[in-house]
Amino acid sequence: MSASVVPRERTALLIVDLQNDFVDPKGAYGRAGQTSPDIAALPERVAPLADALRKAGGWVVSTQFTLVPAKGGEPLISPHLKDLRPFLRKGDFLPGAWGHALVDVLQPADLTVEKIAYSAFYMTRMEWVLRKCGIEKLYVCGIVTNGGVASTVRDAHVRDFDVTVLSDGCAAFSKAVHDTAIDALRPVCKVRTVAEAIAEVSA
After folding, report:
1. How many CB atoms lie within 10 A of CB 104?
2. What is the pLDDT of residues 118-146, one digit of tens each?
3. What is the DSSP string of 108-132?
4. Taking the mean position of all CA atoms in its chain, how far away is CA 44?
């Protein structure tokens, strides 16, 4: 983490997996009854920070969890995910499909990066595009706190990005799991609320 002040044009809101298939009632998780009020509330909560960053000349970056289609369009699903989410099927999290997209309230993203695992840096072009665009500081929000968010934050930290996790801009399927994950991230990043991040960006 850098002690210097990072300019707004080198700062991004990194939105982890706030996609229709996760969040919308008509998406893959909604159809399976895998919903959480805390998760559903996130897009509206973090939208003002996205708007503040756009106004200040910063960036909005979206990660899109992806089930890569193989022969016949059947998705490549890791064994652990099959066990956890047996309801996932052909067409879910399909690149270019409605379910794969960032939710409307947070559109548009300046950069979009597909990911296939918890971390947005694992086998993706994330680090490459951030470096090319001169982005040094990340405010991280999204789902789930103990999965995609935590893994992405830790991978950003070891790559020397200035990282802040938004404590009320993330959620898990239980508040206890969310709180534990946020506490575990304190040694590797700053922790702010969405309101505190907006104040920083707008200062």
Report:
1. 10
2. 999 999 999 999 999 999 999 999 999 99
3. PPSEEEEESSSSTTTTSSHHHHHHH
4. 14
49 CB contacts (<8 Å, ≥6 apart)?
13, 139, 141, 166, 169, 194, 197, 198, 201
Q: How far is CA 132 from the centre of its chain?
A: 20
Helix (H, G, I), strand (E, B) or coil at 86: coil
Cα separation, 120 vs 122, whole angstroms: 6
Q: Can you give the pTM of this predicted structure? A: 0.95
Question: In this structure, which amino acid lies at residue 131?
Answer: R
Whether 105 and 97 have beta carbons less than 8 Å apart is answered as no
List of domains in the chain: 8-202 (3.40.50.850)
> Token digits for 7?
């300019």
